[in-house]
């Protein structure tokens, strides 16, 4: 197989980002002008007919399809998937103004009208996932005709199918019904598709994931950071669990276990990427790649998870940077008392997941806040770190498989649950097995963008968030409100299992 250029190397070039925007614009023009006239593409200009030809072209194209994942998890998805649950909340800074976009998400008070919303973070996640889909579609539309090594072709095609399936899976979980684009958009009419039903979306997600499994290599044979057959199998198993297709989920998840490509890291804290090492380790099934430095591949999500105001010295004590800077505004994704209480006595994951910092300028009590420790790694420069974001870990494979077996009343569920608990330093579970698996997911996967999806798929979201909201309203000081500061009047008044669609997109698509 020809050597595939590394993700990091090709992510350096911002030119490739612009290429895809140019292609989309050019396609619209060309489609409208070629009905009656012969269109000639100069060989020295960049266009679909001249670009998607060589192995290097497709390697750069698939690299570009991964790029929006960094922005999604660096910015808005943790708000929508974690802070929208009972796992994290925001830390109010009364000296700063309102930050309605984040607070509305945490407070389940996002303004919406006719099924659309102007919330910035909803828009960001929606648009970034469709950017991945658009790039994947362009690859899938052209790669079969390319004269390149067949193994490379299969690998690139499998990655594109995985990325499209993963993107639609998150869109379906966040929004329910969304437009389903399976081909490159060449005109305005093609961009304004009707909303596909959840059944239609999930049918395509399953088809894409199945196809990706057959095309992608094993983790041991794939370049680190790229999608693998195991990642596609885990995605498919996750989809089947959401769809309550327990037998199908069991089959595909058991294949991941039987592959012997993955293991639990001996220590829970070692399951998470360091700033420059421990990435894509033996527990990692799929993670989003970041790299510290000046080439634009870095992350900064840790800084979004800090309470505020925080002095430069206090930032430096957490990050170890040479140029720490003070951070103002409002902190987001602060662990709630609820998640802290969810850990059993002796659970080693608690101290590996949560740490405490004291802020000298805080307006809340003594300023001693819990923060997410999983992503605290020393790095050189302020706002520039290289920890990867975990999407799927092997421990989740084990818990999804345990859930699938338990739902079918089959033996073995407790065995897989025990593997996860043993590593956490815990003994046997107590009570109902199904509830034990659900609760185990909460602490094992805390702060990894899983909790909101779990609440929705199990039908618990409305009741859990209603009770969560009542606790905040009754005891705001326990949830990081300064003494005398009350929650806004609209908190927890718009609890819904789905987000409204972005208003900015509704102006382009009359089907919203």
TrEMBL record:
Q: Which residues form the RagB/SusD domain?
A: 371-466
Residue intervals of the SusD-like N-terminal domain: 45-240
Q: Where in the cell is it found?
A: Cell outer membrane
| This protein's record includes keyword Membrane | yes
**Keywords attached to this entry:** Cell outer membrane, Membrane, Signal
* Stored Gene3D superfamilies: 1.25.40.390
Q: Which InterPro entries match?
A: SusD-like_N, SusD_RagB_dom, TPR-like_helical_dom_sf
User: Superkingdom of this entry's organism?
Assistant: Bacteria
The record's family statement is: Belongs to the SusD family.
In Swiss-Prot or TrEMBL terms, this protein is called SusD-like starch-binding protein associating with outer membrane
Species the sequence originates in: Arenibacter algicola
